[in-house]
What we know:
The protein is an alpha+beta fold. It has 3 domains: 8-252, Sulfite Reductase Hemoprotein, domain 1 (2-Layer Sandwich), CATH 3.30.413.10; 265-337, Sulfite Reductase Hemoprotein, domain 2, CATH 3.90.480; 347-444, Sulfite Reductase Hemoprotein, domain 1. 29% of the residues lie in helices and 22% in strands. It has helices spanning 38-51, 71-83, 91-96, 116-128, 190-204, 221-239, 248-252, 265-268, 291-303, 324-334, 366-373, 432-444, and strands spanning 8-9, 19-21, 24-29, 35-36, 55-58, 64-69, 99-101, 141-144, 158-165, 168-175, 183-185, 270-274, 277-283, 288-290, 309-311, 316-322, 350-352, 387-390, 402-409, 412-419, 427-430. Strands 1-2-3-6-5-14 form a 6-stranded mixed β-sheet. A hairpin with a 7-residue loop joins strand 20 (412-419) and strand 21 (427-430). It is globular, with a radius of gyration of 23 Å. It starts with 7 loop residues before the first strand and ends in an 11-residue tail after the last helix. Iron/sulfur cluster (SF4) is lined by residues 353-355, 359, 361-362, 390-392, 394-397.
Amino acid sequence: MSAPALLRKGWCPGALRPMQTGDGLLVRLRPTGGILSFEAARAIAECARQFGNGLIDLTTRANLQLRGLTQMTLGPLAERLSEQGLIDGDPAAEAVRNVIASPLAGLDASACLDIRPAVAALEKRLTDDPSLHRLPARFLFLIDDGGGLPLGDVDADVRFDAVSTTDGPRFVVSLAGHDETVCVCASWAVPEVAAAIAEAFLSLGGGAKAPQRVRDLSRPLCAHWAEIFARREAAAAESGAFSLGVPPQEQSAGLRRVKRTAPGAEELLGTHSFGAGCRVGAAAPFGRLTAGDLDRLAGIAARSGARDLRVTPWRAILVTGLSESSAQALLAGLSETDLILDPVDARLLASACPGAPACASATMASRRDATRLAPLLRRMACDGPVLHVSGCAKGCGQSRPAPITLVGNAGCYDLVRDATARDVPVAAGLSLNAVEVLLRRLLENPAEKLVVGAR
Ligand code: SF4
C-alpha cells in the first residue's frame, strides 16, 4: 500500500487522511466495534513507537490516534496497519465508517442480542455504497446492545438502541436531539434503515454550508425519512429483490428509547465479575497512553489467557475473558504503568484537551497542567469532570459545561465557572501558581462569586 497522500489541517483524520497538528501528523484508527486482538494492539503500539512519537490518544468515539508522524513514516505505517486489517481500502470509505458499538458486544449476558453482525454489516454498507460517501466525516451511527455498559452519553447522529420485545430483540431507532422513535427494526435491517436515514439527511442538507450533524438540520428529518423509506420499500417490492418489512409508523407505536446513564469509573475500572469470569478496565490519563503502556497491557493480557481488548468511548480499555486470578495478576502487572485502575484516582476528576505542544492553537500545556492540578480536586455534584483544562478558547476538548474550566490565553489561564471554554471568564491572566491558589479557594467554598481581574 502506498503512502497516504492527502494531508490537511483541521479536518476529521483517518489512517489514510492524516491531519497536521502541533506535534506532527496525526492518524486515527477505527477498529470495528472497538475490538482489538492482542496482536493488533501490540502492532499499534509498535507503529506509534517506530513511526510516531510514541503517544496514543483514545477518543470519545472509541478510536485510537497515533501522533507525531511524518510524511516519511506514513508509507511504512500504512503497510503495517494493512497487515493487521486496521486500514480501509480508500480514504472515502474510511471517512464514512463511523459506527460506535457497545464495548462488550457479544460477551454481555445482560445484552438483548449480539450486535457484532449488525455492526459489521453497517460498516460494510457504509464503505461499499458510494452514495453514502457524501456523509460528513463527523456523522456517527451508534448501536447499543442494551447490556451493562450503556452508550447513553455518546453524541451520535443516529442511534440503534436494542430492546427485548415479544417478537425477539429489536432496535429502537432515534435521531440526535429528538426523543421520538424513527422506527423499530430487526438486526438484519440495520444497514438498510441507516442508508435510508443517511439519504434523507443528505437530501435535506444541500447548499454551500451543508450541515455536518443531524442536530444542525433546520428541517425535521423524521418525516422526510419516512417518505424515503416508503419509496425504497415500493422500489424493493416492485423489483421483488428485497423488502424491509418494517412499517415505520405501526411498529414504532409505543416503543421508545429508554435513556440509560453511561457507566461511571466504578463500573469500568479495576476488576469486575463478568459472566463466568472477570474483566479488567484501565483508563488512559486524560485520554493519552504511551506505546509502552499499550504494549504492556496487551502483552500481559495475552499471557493471562484473556480473550481480547475493547476500546471504550470513555477513554478506557477493557480486558475481557479473564479468570479471577489472572485478573489479579493483570492488575499487579499494570501497577507499573501510568494507566488508571482505581476509580477514585484524582486524575478522573479532570479532563484536558491535547494542548501544547500537540495542538498548534494552544499556548498552554493543558494535559501537563491538569496532571499537576488533579490532586487538589475533590468530587462535586456534577456530570463529568470537576475541572476542564483547555489549551485555547475553542474548547473542542469538552462541549458541556464544567464547574471550573481553565482556558489557555497568551501563555496564561483564564478561569470560567459553570460554563465552557467559549464562555466569559470570571478571572483572567492567571499563572499556574495563581490558578492553584484560586482552585483551593473555590473548592473550599464552591459558592464563592469569584471576580479577579476579569477581562
Ligand atoms: S481546545 Fe484549542 S488547544 Fe485544545 S485541542 Fe482544541 S484547538 Fe487545540
